[in-house]
């Protein structure tokens, strides 16, 4: 007999988090979920630009010549941001809180976890990336609970799958009922971006303009943080550049829905759709 799926929900980071745990013991599942919420709340206190005491806010308030020592977790998060910024040819940019002509650059010392800025201020806004990073930390916590079948969700736009109740993994719809398409997630993540819910809020760091509102994108990657960074980049890059990024990396792919012709989906090769 298959183990039941226990579903728990938690509000944080101005959205909701949901976890689906496949295990026999409902009480044990509830305890594991509570441990995950503790990690997510802690991460919010470190990464939210809306909290003046968060390390992200403190970095954004640095002036050239000042140095801040951050936690190893925040340092790792910033390193990942810069890695994905380079991977996406600058289309994903964690420093889009404010665009100014004297916008500065981050300086990071891994030996001491010191962060500084030069040539002006840096206004950090991790957005969905912070939510994806939280899911990755939560998935690591589940290993300590010996739970290897789970689906973690943030706001419906970030999903991270461990093993699933079916051999193929977790079946996730793509593009709504109009497409009838879906992907299977298993030990990977799905990030999605668009303007339908929040309006035209995504800025193109390459042009400093708002992005095309007639596109919706999905990215599949090994981690939720990477998938969220890539889905944002897919809103900005053209299809040729998206294909190029996917070809130079392993285990990543992209899907684009043109909202003017929503029934058809463009995918990278090989296609992740089922």
Q: How would you briefly describe this protein structure?
A:
The chain is of the alpha+beta class.
Order of helices and strands: EEHHEHEEHEEEEEEEEHHEE
Strand order of the largest sheet: 1-2-6-7-10-13-14-15
Give me the CATH fold name of the largest domain. T-fold
Strand % is: 25-35%
Name given to the CATH homologous superfamily of the largest domain: ApbE-like domains
Distance between the termini: 27 Å
Taking all Cα atoms into account, the compactness measure Rg is 19 Å
Strands, total number: 15
- Name of the CATH architecture of the largest domain: Roll
**Estimated helix fraction:** 25-40%
Average predicted local confidence, pLDDT: 90
Topology:
Elements lengths: L4 E8 L2 E8 L3 H22 L7 H6 L6 E3 L2 H16 L17 E5 L4 E5 L9 H17 L5 E5 L3 E4 L8 E5 L6 E5 L2 E6 L9 E2 L4 E2 L4 E7 L2 H11 L4 H10 L4 E6 L6 E3 L7
Antiparallel strand pairs: 1-2, 2-6, 3-5, 4-5, 6-7, 7-10, 8-9, 10-13, 11-12, 13-14, 14-15
Helix pairs in contact: 1-4, 3-5, 4-5
Overview of the molecule:
The chain has 2 domains: 5-38 and 133-267, T-fold (Roll); 55-128, no CATH class. The strands form 4 sheets. The protein has an 8-stranded antiparallel beta sheet with strand order 1-2-6-7-10-13-14-15. Strands 3-5-4 form a 3-stranded antiparallel beta sheet, with no helix packed on it. A two-stranded antiparallel sheet has the order 8-9. The protein is an alpha+beta fold and 274 residues long. Helix 1 packs antiparallel against helix 4 and helix 4 packs antiparallel against helix 5 (224-234). The chain is built from 6 helices and 15 strands. The longest helix is centred in the first third of the chain and has 22 residues, at 26-47. Helix content is 30%, strand content 27%. The protein has helices at 26-47, 55-60, 72-87, 128-144, 224-234, 239-248, and strands spanning 5-12, 15-22, 67-69, 105-109, 114-118, 150-154, 158-161, 170-174, 181-185, 188-193, 203-204, 209-210, 215-221, 253-258, 265-267. The chain starts with a strand and ends in a 7-residue tail after the last strand. Strand 6 (150-154) and strand 7 form a beta hairpin.
């Amino acid at each position: 007999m298959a183990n039941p799926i226990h579903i728990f929900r938690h509000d944080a980071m101005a959205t909701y988090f949901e976890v689906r745990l496949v295990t026999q013991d409902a009480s044990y599942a509830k305890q594991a979920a509570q441990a995950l919420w503790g990690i997510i709340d802690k991460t919010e206190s470190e990464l939210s630009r809306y909290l003046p005491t968060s390390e992200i806010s403190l970095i954004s308030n640095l002036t050239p010549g000042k140095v801040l020592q951050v936690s190893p977790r925040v340092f790792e998060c910033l390193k990942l941001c810069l890695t994905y910024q380079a991977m996406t040819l600058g289309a994903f940019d964690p420093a889009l809180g404010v665009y100014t002509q004297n916008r500065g650059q981050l300086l990071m010392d891994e030996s001491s976890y010191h962060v500084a800025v030069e040539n002006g201020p840096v206004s950090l806004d991790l957005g969905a990336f912070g939510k994806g990073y939280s899911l990755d930390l939560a998935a690591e916590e589940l290993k300590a609970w010996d739970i290897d079948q789970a689906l973690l969700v943030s706001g419906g736009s970030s999903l991270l799958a461990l093993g699933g109740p079916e051999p193929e993994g977790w079946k996730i719809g793509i593009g709504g009922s109009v497409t009838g398409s879906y992907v299977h997630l298993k030990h990977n993540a799905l990030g999605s971006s668009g303007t339908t819910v929040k309006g035209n809020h995504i800025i193109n760091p390459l042009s400093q303009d708002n992005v095309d509102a007639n596109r919706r994108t999905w990215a599949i990657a090994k981690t939720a943080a990477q998938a969220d960074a890539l889905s944002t980049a897919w809103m900005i890059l053209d299809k040729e550049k998206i294909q190029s990024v996917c070809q130079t990396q392993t285990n990543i792919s992209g899907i684009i829905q043109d909202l003017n012709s929503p029934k058809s989906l463009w995918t990278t090769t090989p296609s992740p759709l089922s």
